Amino acid sequence: MGRLGAPLGTFLEIEGIRETSGKVGDRTLRVDRVDGKDLATPLWIDLENITLPKDERCVVRGFESGKWIGVPQDIERREQLPPRQAPWQFYKYFVVTSVKSPAALAAQIGPKVQ
Q1: Which helix (H) or strand (E) holds 59?
Q2: How many CB atoms lie within 10 A of CB 95?
Q3: How far apart are alpha carbons 30 and 27 in whole angstroms?
Q4: In angstroms, rounded to a whole number, what is the distance separating the alpha carbons of residues 33 and 36?
Q5: What is the rounded distance in angstroms from the CA atom of residue 2 to the CA atom of residue 79?
Q6: Peptide bond just before 102 cis, omega within 30 deg
Q7: Mean per-residue pLDDT pooled into runs of 10, the chain (114 residues)
Q8: Which sign, positive or negative, has the C-alpha torsion 111, 28, 42, 96?
Q9: How much is the pLDDT for 113?
Q10: Does a structural domain hold residue 87?
């Protein structure tokens, strides 16, 4: 199950504004709507393939995916590696396949403005 409430790989439309507080980059969206429904509590998710503008509402479509990041503890122990900043975990992110708004954002992924 993804962070956005649907199984990984499910087509979703998400809406929000770029998150700027804390240790986040220019690809972190503070999501407050999923498929037209308001979330009780906004959440953040990193977008895999676009860079977000500041202070502009973004509406994008695509799917949530994920990958393993970090190094397993057993490997750290056996190879006597120092602990990593990111612990071994499954990291979930969003792959944008089209952009509804802002229109300028669509140029990053191609001509799929709708």
Answers
A1: strand 57-69
A2: 15
A3: 10
A4: 6
A5: 32
A6: yes
A7: 95 96 90 97 95 95 95 92 86 95 84 46
A8: positive
A9: 42
A10: yes
- β-pair type (37-47, 89-101): parallel
Q: What is the pLDDT of residue 23?
A: 82
71 within a domain of the structure (yes/no) = yes
CA distance 28 to 52: 8
45's enclosing H/E stretch is strand 37-47
d(CA 73, CA 109): 37
Is residue 30 included in any domain, yes or no? yes
| Alpha carbon 111 to its chain's center | 21
How far, in Å, CA of 28 to CA of 94, rounded? 10
**pLDDT score recorded for residue 26:** 94
Task: Find tokens 């992110």 and name the residue.
Answer: 93
Whether 62 is in a domain gets the answer yes
Based on DSSP, count helices (H) and strands (E) in the chain, helices before strands: 1, 5
* Predicted local distance difference test score (pLDDT) of residue 110: 61
How many domains, the chain? 1
- Domain extent at residue 65: 11-108
